[in-house]
Amino acid sequence: MTQTVILLVDDEKTVLDSLSAQLGQLYPEGVECEAAESAAEAWEVLEELDADGATVIVVVSDWLMPGQRGDEFLARVRDRYPTIGRILLTGHADPAALERARTEGAVHRVLFKPWRADDLRDAIEQSMRGPGG
User: Fold this and answer.
1) Three-state SS for 55?
2) pLDDT by residue (tens digit) across 3-19?
3) Is the pTM above the cut of 0.85?
4) Structural domain total, the chain
């Protein structure tokens, strides 16, 4: 059976833990969560999952992280893995960067911290449908 994965990327472990717990409640069966604390680590996880034949359905990434901003990371994810849904999570993103990420198709949805579980579920389902989903 193919593993179905949601990849969480945030440099704050408490955010990763919270997202993972919420996703465990929203998707108790059939969806695994993987976490990375940077874009560089996320690339390693994506490549490993790809090599293992797993299906990554969505990447949820923080905007402000050391090394690479989330909008830039998600644009690269789109270029390499165009079928993966992309959600940007932010507590303080530049409005111009958010608009650029949306209009250039780097992200399907933007969620603001603190988020609600219902909004997270809706964002995941919309991002799995693709642009305009």
Assistant:
1) strand
2) 899 999 999 999 999 99
3) yes
4) 1
